[in-house]
Amino acid sequence: MKIFPAHPLPPSRETAALPDTRKPSERREHPRSIKVMRVARLKHIQMHAECLGMVRDVSSGGIKIDALFPLEVGHRISVALLDDQELTGEIVWRDGRTVGVKFTEEIEVDEILAKPGIRTDGQRSRFARFQTCQPSRVTYNNHEYDAVLSNISQRSAKLLCDAAPKMNSNIVIRTDANQSVAATVK
Questions:
Q1: For residue 24, what pLDDT is reported?
Q2: How far is residue 62's CA from residue 28's CA, in Å, rounded to a whole number?
Q3: Could you tell me if 104 and 89 are in contact, meaning their C-beta atoms sit under 8 angstroms apart?
Q4: Which segments of the chain does DSSP mark as H helices, in order?
Q5: Each residue's pLDDT tens digit, 129-146
Q6: How would residue 93 be classed by pLDDT, with cut points 50, 70 and 90?
Q7: Three-state SS for 94?
Q8: What is the rounded (10 degree) CA torsion for 54, 40, 88, 84?
Q9: Residue 173 has pLDDT above 50, yes or no
């Protein structure tokens, strides 16, 4: 049976030069007690590219994300959970598609994870939007129309289409033969 002290002992002269072999979760500067499953927009600053990411946990000093494009240690990225909120940082570790990002400056976790609210200009904050130019099909009143999906978020999308559905009409958006989503025009 191994017994571990509640607080690690300070390094002795013999152990001070040894490499830090603790797991990344044990080397954290800030505790990561908040587990989340939120979609975020990731922007690779040097490559000017963006993709989706799934936030796994967050602290005042950093964030753990599953990224949908390859990121490497040392890359600088920005993370947005809402359109009007961007956090910048650097990839400090990587395990497959999961990365750890150290923020440029500490954040208030509760503010970052809060539901979208009313901004000072009176507009409501929105979930992060992604620009795209995806050919699509829209079904409205049993007719199909060509469309272009121009941007998308967790809860909404903007389409360019010849169809003129009325407000609150139900439509179906299809981006390929296997994927479709029901939506309401707003």
A1: 53
A2: 9
A3: yes
A4: 109-113
A5: 777 888 999 999 999 999
A6: very high
A7: strand
A8: -160
A9: yes
Pairing of strands 76-82, 34-44: antiparallel
Residues 94-117: tens digit of each pLDDT? 999 999 999 999 988 887 777 666
CA distances from 18 to 29, 54, 80 (A): 19, 35, 38
Of the two residues 82 and 12, the one the predictor is more confident about is 82
What one-letter code names the amino acid at 132?
Answer: T
Residue 17 is predicted with a pLDDT of 43
Rounded Cα distance, 4 and 2, in Å: 7
Q: How many CB atoms lie within 10 A of CB 93?
A: 14
Sign of the alpha-carbon torsion through 33, 39, 45, 51 = positive
Q: Are 65 and 59 in contact (CB under 8 A)?
A: no
Residue 46, token pair as written in the block:
């040097």
Instruction: Enumerate residues 6+ apart whose C-beta is below 8 A from 21.
Output: none
75, 118, 125, 127, 142 from 121: Cα distances, Å: 34, 8, 10, 17, 41
d(CA 9, CA 24): 19
- Which residue's entry shows tokens 């979208």? 116
